[in-house]
Amino acid sequence: MMGPVFLPEEKMERSDILNMYGERERLVRENERRKMTGLSRSTVWRLEREGTFPGRKKTGKNSCAWLMSDLLLWMHERSGYESCRGKEINQ
Questions:
Q1: pTM of the predicted model over 0.70
Q2: How far apart are CA 80 and CA 49, in angstroms?
Q3: Distance (Å, whole) CA 85 – CA 83
Q4: Which domain of life is it from (predicted)?
Q5: Does residue 8 form part of some domain?
Q6: Does residue 1 lie within any of the structural domains?
C-alpha cells in the first residue's frame, strides 16, 4: 500500500503562496531546489516515492524540475515560520 500522498493545501491557492514569497510560477531545477529545501537529492527521491514531497516534472530526456508553487507550498506546510532567500514570513 502507498503512503501519504503530497497534496497542496486546499485553502492556500498557488497564486497566494507565490505572492507571499514574491515569486512567480516557474520551473525550479535541482541546484535551486536543493538550496530552497536543504534536502539532498537522495532524500527528495525517497520522499517523492513515499508521496510526501512534490513530484518532479520531466522537462527533457535527462532533465527534470519542480514547480515553484509546489515547493513553496511544501515548505510552508512544514512550519508556520518559513524563510526563503532571506524573505521571512511569520504567521
A1: yes
A2: 25
A3: 7
A4: Bacteria
A5: no
A6: no
Q: How far apart are CA 87 and CA 66, in angstroms?
A: 20
Q: Is residue 69 part of a domain?
A: yes
* Closest to 68 measured CA to CA, from 39, 13, 29: 29
**Residue 13 confidence class, pLDDT cut points 50, 70, 90:** confident
Kindly state the cell numbers that stand for 8.
497542496
Do the beta carbons of residue 24 and residue 71 sit within 8 Å?
no
pLDDT in tens, 46-83: 999 999 999 999 999 999 999 999 999 999 988 654 44
**In the 3-class helix/strand/coil scheme, how is 3-72 assigned residue by residue?**
CCCCCCCCCCCHHHHHHHHCCCCCEECHHHHHHHHCCCHHHHHHHHHHCCCCCCEEEECCEEEEEHHHHH
**Total number of domains in the chain:** 1
